Amino acid sequence: MTRPPSGEVTTLTIHIPVQFKRRGGRRLILTPDGVTSPLSPPPAVDDTMLKLLIKAHRWRRRIESGKARSITDLAAQEKVTIAYVGRVLNLTCLAPDIVSAILDGRQPRGLSVNAMLKDVTAGWDRQRQAWGFSAG
């Protein structure tokens, strides 16, 4: 390595492709696949995702037990929109291995509650593919 003549300033620029995301109220640094970052904590249980799964199953039990007569009735009881209740209840149709991964904090990096609420596909294989889970 050669040194610049005294008094001359050199600049070295390094580009590292990273993404900054928020998940569960925490900031994460997402690095390219296969590269670990000492600044980014290992996957952990996403409290927001966990609470939403619990809410989905609790709401489903309320409808099945008759405590809420319909999705419309449940939405009125919870003071939320019917559309939101429908999206949350769709989470009760997740593949069992996806639920286990979420409970253990092994969900793919970058998976968000919003992505899950946006589109819960009918087939378990399509769920795994859409959200980056390995085949179960």
Describe the overall structure:
The chain has a two-stranded antiparallel sheet. It has a domain at 42-131. It has 6 helices and 2 strands, in the order ββαααααα. The protein is elongated and about 80 Å long. Helix 1 packs across helix 3 (82-90) and helix 2 (71-78) packs across helix 3 (82-90). The protein has helices spanning 47-65, 71-78, 82-90, 96-104, 113-118, 124-131, and strands spanning 19-23, 26-30. The mean pLDDT is 83. With 136 residues, the chain is mainly alpha-helical.
Quick structural gist:
The chain has 136 residues and is mainly alpha-helical.
Question: What's the helix and strand layout?
Answer:
Elements: E1 19-23, E2 26-30, H1 47-65, H2 71-78, H3 82-90, H4 96-104, H5 113-118, H6 124-131
Antiparallel strand pairs: 1-2
Helix pairs in contact: 1-3, 2-3
